[in-house]
């Protein structure tokens, strides 16, 4: 059940990214100020994307309540697969043969991971000092990615800001585990008194803002792919090191599962490097599928 919910959440996130990009497209040089976000609130497509994002969060929360962090977040790699056709039809993204083949790799890899990666042990919480180190380390990584993303062209900005958002989304998902555990044990009072709740919310909000800046560049596949790669990688590290999550024996099942996950991540990385974007229509030899003409809307 957790796996199915994770796939549903991935579709919601892909739809959200596509719709939000449609609303934010063209604001890449200005998005980041408070005024620019007020302008986004007037964009119908962006608001619809935010609704889809909220639905994805809810479904993801249920998935995390039923499964391991590393497993649920790994399946969110399918977000980039869903984003390709959605971007093609909704924001006139060019989808080329490399991206189609890479998406097939993602699907095949995750099928192997799901079939052979059975959950075994794990915990929902960890000592505070372990969480403090985790938040500091990955928070610093996200800050470095944002800094580097601001020192290049729009394609680099989309990829690195997307990567930073992926790191922060992974932190948010990880902090949801102890947050939900506090609510289940002590109810609303325990939830509101748990510091993990506020760490979860802060990571989620910052990730949301950073991803909007990434999407506003117009490079949907690069943005979504780096989110979809960094999110599971960071989640797997946190799941194994902090939450002590493990896959069930036999050992060869684990090997096949991790090989499948590696193939899926490789496919997402290939999508990141593929030519895409509404302004990248010139291709050689018909390698890309022409994007449909869409009426502009706000």
Rg over alpha carbons: 19 Å
Fraction of helical residues: over 70%
Continuous helix count: 11
Mean pLDDT: 84
| Secondary-structure element string | HHHHHEHHHHHHE
* Low-pLDDT ranges: 275-287, 289-298
**Any idea how many domains?**
1
Largest sheet: number of strands, sense, barrel closure = 2 strands, antiparallel
Distance between the termini: 37 Å
Annotate the secondary structure layout:
Blueprint: H1 2-24, H2 34-40, H3 44-66, H4 69-75, H5 78-90, E1 95-96, H6 97-116, H7 128-149, H8 154-193, H9 195-215, H10 220-241, H11 251-273, E2 288-289
Antiparallel strand pairs: 1-2
Helix pairs in contact: 1-3, 1-4, 1-5, 3-8, 4-10, 5-6, 5-10, 6-11, 7-8, 8-9, 8-10, 10-11
Description:
The protein is mainly α. The protein has one domain. Helices cover 74% and strands 1% of the residues. α1 packs antiparallel against α3, α1 runs parallel beside α5 and α5 packs antiparallel against α10. The chain is globular. The chain starts with a helix and ends in a 9-residue tail after the last strand.
Summarize the structure.
The chain has helices spanning 2-24, 34-40, 44-66, 69-75, 78-90, 97-116, 128-149, 154-193, 195-215, 220-241, 251-273, and strands spanning 95-96, 288-289.
């Amino acid at each position: 059940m957790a796996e199915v919910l994770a796939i549903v959440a991935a579709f919601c996130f892909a739809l959200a990214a596509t719709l939000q990009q449609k609303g934010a497209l063209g604001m890449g040089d200005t998005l980041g100020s408070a005024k620019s976000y007020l302008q986004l609130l007037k964009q119908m497509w962006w608001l619809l994307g935010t609704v889809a994002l909220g639905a994805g969060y809810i479904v993801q929360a249920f998935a995390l309540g039923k499964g391991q962090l590393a497993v649920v977040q790994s399946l969110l790699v399918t977000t980039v697969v869903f984003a390709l056709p959605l971007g093609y039809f909704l924001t006139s993204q060019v989808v080329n043969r490399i991206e189609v083949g890479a998406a097939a790799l993602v699907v095949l890899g995750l099928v192997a991971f799901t079939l052979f990666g059975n959950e075994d042990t794990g915990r929902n919480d960890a000592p505070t000092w372990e969480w403090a180190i985790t938040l500091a380390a990955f928070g610093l990584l996200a800050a470095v990615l944002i800094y580097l993303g601001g020192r290049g062209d729009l394609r680099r900005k989309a990829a690195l800001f997307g990567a930073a958002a992926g790191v922060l989304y992974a932190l948010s998902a990880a902090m949801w585990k102890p947050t939900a555990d506090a609510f289940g044990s002590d109810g609303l009072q325990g939830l509101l008194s748990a510091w993990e709740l506020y760490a979860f919310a802060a990571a989620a909000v910052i990730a949301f803002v950073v991803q909007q800046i990434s999407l506003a560049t117009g490079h949907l596949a690069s943005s979504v792919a780096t989110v979809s790669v960094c999110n599971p990688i960071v989640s797997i590290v946190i799941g194994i090191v902090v939450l002590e999550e493990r896959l069930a024996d036999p050992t060869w099942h684990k090997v096949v599962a991790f090989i499948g996950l590696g193939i899926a991540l490789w496919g997402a990385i290939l999508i990141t490097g593929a030519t895409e974007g509404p302004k990248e229509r010139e291709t050689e030899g018909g390698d890309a599928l022409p994007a449909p003409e869409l009426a502009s809307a706000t």
